[in-house]
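# nightly structure sweep
# worker-07 picked up a monomer target from the shared queue
# config: single-sequence mode, recycle default, output format = structure tokens
# input follows
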Amino acid sequence: MSAAPLTATSTADRLQAALADAHAAVDRLLSATDGEQPDGRQGVGAGGSMRQQLTEVERLARRVDAVRLRVLARAERERLVDRTGHTDTGSWAADATNGDRRPAARDVMLATALDAPGEALVDLTGDGGQSSDAGGPGTSSGTGSGTETSSGTEDRPASGAEPSLAGDRAGEAPGRRRMQATRAALSAGDISTEHARVIARALDDLPDRVGELGRRRCEQRLLSLAARLSPSRLRSAGRRILAEVEPDPQVADAHEDALVSRDEDRAHERAELWIKDNHDGTMTGHFTVPRASGMVLRKVIDAMTAPRRHDGRDGDGPVPAAARGAGTGFGGERIGADRKAAGLDWQHRRGLALADLLLRLPTDHLHAKVAATLLVTTRLEDLQGELTKVGGTDMAEPVGAGTVRRMACGAGIVPAVLDGESVPLDLGRQRRLFSDAQRVALASRYTECAAEGCDRPFAWTEIHHLRAWQSGGPTDLDNAVPLCGRHHRMIDGPDWQHSLRRGTDGTTTIRFHRRT
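# output follows
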């Protein structure tokens, strides 16, 4: 009788064997993406949609992330650092991977949240409360297919039981994972680690009175949203998730405002600025400021550098060849068509804009009022202090009700007060260009370009007539959509056709199709 084949029996051996198989599979993937294929077809574009291929690669990477988090969770659970001498598991992980401690610590915190029973989490930002947000509008990594599976895209628990706000957790099964659905969704590759981090933070921020069924319902709703939202957008939805189980909208409003205000208070505590002289004609600095202050600065810089905003044209019609794709920053200098010749990359443009801004303070005459002003949308009762609901901005980030009231007392703030005194917003054929008041009104509907999938912020957009002015279209809100410079050129150009989709919230989404 021949000897039985050797088998990997321990968890470590099984994992090592699986890793070897995975590396071999990745080797095959790398080979498949290299150059000329044996049948003569070219690379990754052959035989299928490149978008779908990228989606599947991303899903694979997310599943590998789930494995990595499970390894970290086990290291934390078994207190591996007691045997290695490291101060914590984050430091051990950073040492093992030649990485930085802060992101490693954040990963350990997430791994623990996904692995542990329902005890409260201390700090999901992972290192002294430092935020993980990346600057710039809307970076998306969602690849959700919308398929409702056990990985957590259903809106309600599988049991069909109606969630309750009851806070009695005494009957919860010992060892139950509070975030089983999120763990399963990450393991399936339906969400990213950043999505999971946002969901964990949102659930941890729920009031203690929300019971386990209510938390599961909130978790399922967030997973459903994660299938189509980027982590930054999901973060905004997470602040509002209490409304999923709270019937009183004012209670949900107050909870959201408390979360935003808490972040604002923490931001004030972390505000700092340093500047050093490089002794070569330049100075280098770094600053950390509260979001509201940063949004005002970014709004001014965007107004100085965003393509085509310099010429004041918000209407339609042909664009001069010299101005296509161009923007103006400091001192009216034309940047765009000759940008490459001038050697000005994007960061350099913004740096020059900041330098010009500092030389020209105060900023009240830099640009047209609305172009360089932060637009804040609030309700009259919130502005008067009767209620607490966060204010919206045209930079896609909310501000707390208290901050809105303080900002409304200062210069450079235009509060778009809902239910307040009305101004003419439909101008018909009286004028061709949209007014500042109309732009303020549109900012309460849109946070970014109306083109499908475009994340250019509203502050960068131009207002487009859906029915062209020269064809009899009125200068009315129902005939207005915000478009970034690129999509404004596309909608006026000969190479693209488009279709419109009207939303129940009064917005219009434009989908472009290349003409064939």
